[in-house]
Amino acid sequence: xxxxxxxxxxxxxxxxxxxxxxIEPIPEGTHxxxxxxxxxxxxxxxxxxxTLESVLSQDPGLKHMQIEVVDDCSTKDDPEAVVREIxxxxxxxxxxxxxxxxxxxxxxxxxxxxxxxxxxxxGDDFIAPDFYSSxxxxxxxxxxxxxxxxxxxxxxxxxxxxxTESPLPNIDGRITDFPTIQAVRNAIHTPTVxxxxxxxxxxxxxxxxxxxxADWEMWFRAGLYGKAVTLDRQxxxxxxxxxxxxxxxxxxxxxxxxxKYTVDMCMHxxxxxxxxxxxxxxxxxxxxxxxxxxxxxxxxxxxxxSLIHAGxxxxxxxxxxxxxxxxxxxxxxxxxxxxxxxxxxxKLKKDxxxxx
Length: 356
Description:
Layout: E1 2-4, E2 19-21, E3 35-41, H1 45-56, E4 65-71, H2 79-87, E5 92-95, H3 102-112, E6 117-120, E7 126-127, H4 131-141, E8 147-149, E9 153-155, E10 161-164, E11 170-171, E12 174-175, H5 178-184, E13 194-196, H6 197-203, H7 214-225, E14 228-230, E15 236-239, H8 245-250, H9 254-269, H10 272-278, H11 284-299, H12 303-316, H13 320-337
Helix pairs in contact: 1-2, 5-7, 5-9, 7-9, 11-12, 12-13
């Protein structure tokens, strides 16, 4: 079964009907803890111990918290062994029968959750010792919240701090103008997010056609559905990899395409008043990212990828400076890219699906 939104104008290039995977309600009689900590993994077992330890250090017990690792059929490591060693029987483990991809694995996490509030904590991220107590306190003030977040701290592979996010503008915790902020850029890192399971049951799971920005669209939808609230301090850590999914997508420009597609999806769902306020500059953030990737790929002499992003920059923000950038990229591609072998090995830290 699918959830269906109203028809989308054809000029948006979105499907006529946007369909989200159905999240089935919990069967009656099932024990419902307060928290479901669902940890999706795929070839990241070297970070999983830290992730699990950060949760178990504040474990209120089986009655109040479900903890489960959901592995997408890892091929390079053994997350189940880590669960056995660190979890010592407290942490459940589920392995997909075959690799289903990150987005389907996230939806499996939601469907397997039984708690009132679902925390999807990636197997390479981790949280501060007071994460759940802080969120519980925030929920006492906002029991009707449909999206609960906090600013994050980005760290590298060695836990070195890279960037610290500031909290989104809020009044006593309630985020002001959340839908218009999230519609045009992802302002949230996933390890900070908690969503009531009943909200997933109402709005559906992650949108399967998106591979890179599904989290962006999901958090927008959850906040638009009701009320988005935030802590004013950082209690979650987001892992930045030097060679991420962004690197692969950047070679073809699919990262920017997905960003634009996601903006279009979000804009369609906004009330007309909000759309009118931000329509003129809705692609500004995506255009800036395209310009960034154009420059980074040019530094690495990946001329075709650089040209693709220069083209996106021009398309999303047509102006004289963007036109100059495009023709410069085109000249480089003609002079160097066609006649020289390019090694498509890149390490980019900028991520279109994240707020940094």
